[in-house]
Amino acid sequence: MWNHRNVSKALNIRLTLRCSRQFRESEIIFSETEETDTVSQTATYQSFSFFRKMNPKDDKKTDLCPSPVFVHNPHLDALKDDVLYHFGLGTRTHDLPAMFGDVKFVCVGGSPWRMKSFIEYIAAELSMEDPKSEYPNICAGTDRYAMYKVGSVLSVSHGMGISSIAIMLHELIKLLHHAHCTDVTIIRIGTSGGIGLKPGTVVVTKQSMDATFLPKFEQVILGKTVVRNTDLDQSLAEELLQCSKELNQFETVIGNTMCTLDFYEGQARLDGAFCSYTEKDKQDYLTKASEAGVCNIEMESSVFAAMCKLSGLRAAVVCVTLLDRLKGDQLNESQEVLRSYQQRPQILVGYYIRKQLKAKAVCS
Ligand SMILES: O=P(O)(O)O[C@@H]1C[C@H](O)[C@@H](CO)O1
Ligand SMILES: O=c1cc[nH]c(=O)[nH]1
């Protein structure tokens, strides 16, 4: 007998099958001894293009059925209690569906201060201010990450760099999955160094690239290098660009973002504790990056794109540029100016969320 529960279970199985195929096809494994030189990297890139062609529905959500948040881990089913250690939350200790089941928008960024200020901003934008203006940190039991929630918007800090955001995303994706969230959009609101852009320009990422300008994220699993796809949702990027046009408050561009493992040598800075290259070497490297379409440099977009794609989350990266790296390395603007720049991605994403919620209210 087909009742609502059976239908949604069947639907889930179908979506899970589709997504596990997507999971398998979206990664390529190199053993450590195999070459990972430019030739094999080019082959990887070509495979990604092939994969993209196989999944025409990737970018546009054409399915009318709700889209769940996927995990790809059979071991999770055997866990009696899934402890989300770095959040100080767990499936036995917390009613995750009650706490987070309504989440539709997740915004993440490096600093806890920024993510708190974002939730205050969004609460005001959505006229959902707490009369006491208190927004408790849901992860108060730990000092690793901070998390805030207002209505259907969740704001989470991720610290600096790929490893820090990856740990946060593992737990966030499981949290959204355990809470049975559907149709979630996730946006990283961050800071970056620009290439040839006026400081304060906001960059919506088209493609996240590694430090060799290839659209991939590499992870060593069981001693083997697994290469994952770093595609982001193109239609979401276009919608965000359109929002910035409507807002008309600051310059916004769409372009590639280079994700590095380090802020200093990894981003060709001349002001780290160590430096073995010249100003000309730096300029040549940044020029090559620019020729590959790179508009800005930060430290999280590649793993963010890869993990969001694997879990079926609609994802975008919106980063403000704090300086033009062709002109310098040091962040010597006043704190006031830097803070005002940091607010720009928040303003843009706040506008986008409000627009989405308004459109949904009209439809329902
Ligand atoms: O989100 P944030 O502003 O932390 O992103 C960039 C990349 C690094 O995490 C950090 C370096 O200053 O800023
Ligand atoms: O230059 C910069 C500025 C912010 N974040 C980065 O990763 N690089």
Automatic annotation (TrEMBL):
GO molecular function, one term: uridine phosphorylase activity
Pfam families reported in the protein's UniProt record: PNP_UDP_1 (PF01048)
Domain (Nucleoside phosphorylase) ranges: 104-353
Example of a GO cellular component annotation carried by this entry: cytosol
Amino acids binding substrate: 267, 269
Residues binding phosphate, per UniProt: 144, 188-191
GO annotation, biological process: nucleotide catabolic process; uridine catabolic process
InterPro entries: Nucleoside_phosphorylase_d, Nucleoside_phosphorylase_sf, Uridine_phosphorylase_euk
Similarity annotation: Belongs to the PNP/UDP phosphorylase family.
Protein name: Nucleoside phosphorylase domain-containing protein
Organism: Perca fluviatilis
